[in-house]
Design goal:
Elements: H1 7-28, H2 37-72, H3 80-110, H4 120-125, H5 132-159, H6 167-200
Length: 204
Amino acid sequence: MHPLNTVKGAITTGVVLSIVIGVGLASWAGNSVGFHVVLADRWLHILAGVMWIGLLYYFNVVQTPGLAAAAADKGGPGGAGITKYIAPRALLWFRWAAVVTWLTGAIYLLAGYGSGNYNAIVSAFALQPGFRSIGVGAWLGTIMLLNVWVFIWPNQKKILGIVPATDEEKAAARKTAGRASRINFILSVPMLMCMGGQAHGLPF
């Protein structure tokens, strides 16, 4: 199987290459080589987060405006190809990447960033001193996850015809899903600032 010919092959190759580079860098620095569960969880958290937010940005910046333009172009090919083949696949990766991002983030907090401080998740969600930046990020991420599963995905199933819906229900679903997605798009900007700001400082 050529790794460039399939998504699974490319993902597998990327993971293997990362392991080789990680082991090489650790050895080069003279550190002991071993598997660190908390650090692996953080790595998965970042990977899943990039997938989730990347697809969120794709939906808001590319697909939604593109489908609107396709609908307005009466002589064009329309958006049926996107809604039939692209959107369902993108939404599959989108919604499960959201779950993996949130769960790995929660595990990282439960592990106290690897420090053994197992109250870190409580401190973060309670917005206690020293945890406020990551806490605000965690709350925003939680709201975004709920938006995905409570508002975006159930309504997208109506829009895409996965569940039966009348034209009126589809129109209402488009409005609800679109607003929830746009809210997540907005919330993602301060969420990413807070997530990075916990370790690297806020820009303001």
